[in-house]
């Protein structure tokens, strides 16, 4: 099971990623639907990433924090014509 620190870092990283995806999407004048189509994912996935959430629920019914697969992150970067590092930045630094 991940440590509390790892869970907190992942939540911050998901929020950062979501903000960056939204910023780049809007800068490219794309709707969530258009970005989803370009990336080969659903609009719901784009929404979840931008809001750093997912569709799972914990035992108390709270929605889980975002945790997109790496291939999804690469697909989004490709769809936005940017490098993955532009989406992730330095979120991996402690």
Overview of this structure, please?
The chain is built from five helices and two strands. The chain has a single domain (4-87), classed as 434 Repressor (Amino-terminal Domain) (Orthogonal Bundle), CATH 1.10.260. The chain is mostly helical and 94 residues long. The chain has helices at 4-27, 32-39, 43-50, 70-79, 84-88, and strands spanning 53-57, 63-65. 59% of the residues lie in helices and 9% in strands. The radius of gyration is 13 Å and the shape is globular. Strands 1-2 form a two-stranded antiparallel sheet. The model has no long low-confidence stretch (mean pLDDT 88).
Query: Strand content of the residues, in percent?
Result: 5-15%
Number of strands: 2
Tell me roughly what share of residues is in helical segments. Answer: 55-70%
Number of helices: 5
Biggest sheet, strands in spatial order?
1-2
**What Rg, in angstroms, do the CA atoms define?**
13 Å
Decide which structural class fits the backbone: mainly alpha
What's the CATH architecture?
A: Orthogonal Bundle
Please summarize the sheet with the most strands. Answer: 2 strands, antiparallel
Q: Which topology does CATH recognise?
A: 434 Repressor (Amino-terminal Domain)
Sum up the overall morphology in one term. globular
How many separate domains? 1
CATH class: Mainly Alpha
User: What do we call the CATH homologous superfamily?
Assistant: lambda repressor-like DNA-binding domains
Whole-number mean pLDDT:
88
């Amino acid at each position: 099971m991940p440590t509390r620190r790892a869970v907190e870092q992942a939540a911050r990283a998901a929020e950062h990623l979501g903000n960056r995806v939204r910023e780049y999407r809007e800068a490219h004048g794309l709707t969530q639907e258009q970005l989803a189509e370009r990336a080969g994912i659903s609009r719901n996935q784009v929404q979840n990433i931008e809001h750093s959430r997912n569709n799972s629920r914990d035992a108390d019914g709270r929605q889980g924090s975002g945790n997109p697969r790496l291939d999804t992150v690469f697909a989004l970067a490709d769809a936005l014509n940017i490098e993955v590092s532009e989406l992730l930045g330095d979120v991996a630094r402690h």
